[in-house]
Every structure is written in C-alpha cells, then in structure tokens.
Design goal:
single chain; 184 residues; mainly alpha; two-stranded antiparallel sheet; 2 strands; 2% strand; binds zinc ion; nucleus; ALOG_dom; ALOG domain-containing protein; DNA binding
C-alpha cells in the first residue's frame, strides 16, 4: 500500500518536472528610460487636454493649461508637504503621520516639464511658443521648490546641466495608471 503511494507521488513529481528552460529575456531596449518616460508623459498630457471641457487643442495650449496640469497631478503625489501649522513642518523625517497633503515632489515636476518641453518641440511645436518653456512655469516650479524645501526641511540642489541623469519616474506614471474617471 505504501508502495502505491510512493509510486503515485513519484509519478506526480516526475510530471511536474516538465521544465521549460525558456529564458525570459527582456525585449530589446528600443527606447531609453528617458525616451519612454517622455513618451508616456506626452501621452498623459495629451489625454489631459482632451479631457478638458471643452477639449483643448495642442495648438491652443498655453502655460496656464500646463500650470493646471501640474496642479492636477498633485492629487497623485506621494510627497508629504507639511502645512505651516503642522508640528512636523520643516522636519525631513517626521516620527509620526500627520494629515498634511501629499503632493508631487518638486524634482518630479521639474523633470517632467523638461521632458514635456522637449516632446512639444519634437511634435512640431515651435520653440518660441513652447508653453513648457514659459516663464510662468519657471516661477511656479521655483515656488514649489521653495515651499517644499521649507516644509520638508530639505535643500534642493538644481544641477546646471540639462542632461537628465536622474529620471524621476514618480508622478505622471502614477497619474496615468489611475486615470479613471475621478469623482466630480
Ligand atoms: Zn504635516
């Protein structure tokens, strides 16, 4: 009796050793991380413009649409930005949770604008008219940086070089994945 059981389990195990040694090789990298992130960002922004009431054509897009887009993204943010009144204001590493809002980190927004600015021109937009290069955007980003630096007790160092070395994938990717109809 015990032999039968042994045989059964042996067969069972031999059946399960059908092992395909197929290596899951990643697809050839057609696009760099920067390029694919840029493409995703561009699609997200295009979708955002389409979802406006009434929809905004790319040719009509100006810096205020871009600013609205950045504020819209804040709801998907993961960076705690403390209010002045919060006991953890200015603490980089608070010991306890608080009710302050989560926002898009300045670095994510800054990198995002850089990618969208490039994408805009790649899609035929004229550099002189680029809404992402508008002074209003720079002012907004500077304000966000200063506000977050104070609230989070962090000093940001902005690199002079335009090369995107640290690609922050935070932000728009999240916005895209949760691009369900939002409760009005
Ligand atoms: Zn707080």
């Amino acid at each position: 009796m015990s032999d039968d059981i042994a045989k059964d389990s042996a067969q069972g195990s031999s059946r399960s050793t059908v092992n395909n040694h197929q290596q899951q090789s990643p697809p050839p990298a057609l696009l760099s991380r920067y390029e694919s992130q840029k493409r995703r960002d561009w699609n997200t922004f295009g979708q955002y413009l389409k979802n406006q009431r009434p929809p905004v054509a790319l040719s009509q897009c100006n810096s205020s649409h871009v600013l609205d887009f950045l504020r819209y993204l804040d709801q998907f943010g993961k960076t705690k930005v403390h209010h002045y009144g919060c006991v953890f204001f200015g603490q980089p590493d608070p010991p306890a949770p608080c009710t302050c809002p989560l926002r898009q980190a300045w670095g994510s927004l800054d990198a995002l604008i850089g990618r969208l600015r490039a994408a805009y021109e790649e899609h035929g937009g004229s550099p002189g008219n680029n809404p992402f290069g508008n002074g209003a955007i720079r002012v907004y980003l500077r304000e966000v940086r200063e506000c977050q630096a104070k609230a989070r007790g962090i000093v940001y160092k902005k690199k002079k070089r335009r090369k995107n070395q640290t690609i922050l994938t935070v932000g728009v990717g999240e916005a895209k994945s949760s691009a369900k109809p939002l409760p009005a």
